[in-house]
Prior knowledge:
The structure is a single chain. The chain is mostly helical. It is 61% helix and 0% strand. It has six helices and no strands. The chain has helices at 8-17, 24-33, 36-44, 57-73, 85-104, 127-155. The protein is globular. The model has no long low-confidence stretch (mean pLDDT 87).
Amino acid sequence: MPLTPFHLGPGLFFGMLSFRFIDLTAFLLGSVVLDIEPFFALITGNIRQPHHFFTCFLGGILGAFIVLLILNIFKGIRFPRHSSNLSIFFGGLMGCWVHVIFDSFMHYDVSPFWPSHFNPFLNLISISQNYFLCIILGIIGLGLLMIKIIKHYVRH
Length: 156
């Protein structure tokens, strides 16, 4: 799903489920940061194989470090504001890995266990089911976020 907001659905859902332990902003950023690679493939004309190193679990580790760097440079955009570097790193890592799994369902050129080309997730669900699942998870995640915000304001 290159360059789509669909990854934010699972990112928001799983980020809200793990809100107490990891940084939500990092989870959300991690769920989309790996699309830098397909973006460059599209602008350079290499659309035959837009996924390479980043769209694998190992590449997700590097993606998590990128998220950590970005969020330490732009400290004002985090939610919650006072997250540890460990919480940011693991939020980014989980977001990247969720991205890898959802891309693995539908892209033949994704190798989640790189350097092996083995992809046990390919075609487990259809492309339309993948998009539908991303949308449903996003709606539920948005609902969980709204509940969190309302509870916060009721307490204060």
